[in-house]
Design a protein that fits this description.
Elements (H helix, E strand, L loop, with lengths): L25 H4 L2 H27 L19 H4 L7 H5 L5 H20 L3 H19 L10 H15 L8 H5 L2 H5 L5
Organism: Cellulosimicrobium composti
Keywords: Membrane, Transmembrane, Transmembrane helix
Protein name: Thiosulfate dehydrogenase [quinone] large subunit
Length: 190
């Protein structure tokens, strides 16, 4: 067809020599109500992880009774991992109660929760949360209510989407975080 210019969709956008391509933060370009919804969603998912950390640490009586709290010598991974009956139950049962796995799990819950609530380190939080949620998904296979998908997968994809949209800068400290010299020199910390 005459007069059309084809551009490779994977090719970088042209820039003026000596300038960097502009990074588009979709959350900042959204309407204010959309920004608020993205920010609140990010904070709520962060609180989901932080609450799991707090309940397992202190045995607040919701998912973890006080006598099984981490501070009282309980193992945060034993209850879930030792009661599995799925495809990979044997693999995960061997990890139950391992002190290293307990610490890794709890640091993950705390780090992901704080990062999402504060809107900082969203890339690290997205990768960490996705890894944790995928392991939990695998631990529960085969699924009971839906043979393919569950809330672990949808939550992981939601966190990835919030990260890609730049939701850390809405109702959070994402903009301030990104201006830190350490973060500017290490893009993976964004």
């Amino acid at each position: 067809m005459k007069g059309t210019i084809e551009r490779n969709a994977n090719a970088p956008l042209p820039t003026v020599e000596g300038t960097e391509p502009e990074t588009v933060n979709l959350a900042e370009r959204a309407t204010r109500p959309t920004q608020v919804v993205l920010g609140v969603l990010r904070i709520l998912i962060g609180f989901y992880f932080l609450w799991a950390f707090l309940d397992k640490t202190f045995g607040l009586g919701f998912a973890t009774p006080a006598e099984r709290a981490w501070v009282n010598g309980g193992s945060p991974t034993t209850g879930f991992l030792s009661n599995l009956e799925g495809t990979f139950s044997g693999v995960f049962a061997n990890l139950a109660g391992n002190a290293f796995v307990d610490v890794l799990f709890m640091v993950g819950l705390l780090g992901i929760g704080l990062a999402l609530i504060l809107g900082i380190g969203m890339r690290v939080a997205a990768v960490s949360a996705t890894a944790l949620l995928l392991l939990m998904y695998l631990a529960e296979l085969p699924l009971v209510t839906n043979p393919i998908i569950d809330d672990h997968i949808t939550m992981a994809l939601t966190i990835i989407a919030l990260t890609l949209l730049g939701a850390g800068s809405v109702l959070g400290l994402g903009k301030t975080w990104q201006r830190l010299p350490l973060v500017q020199h290490n893009a993976w910390l964004v």
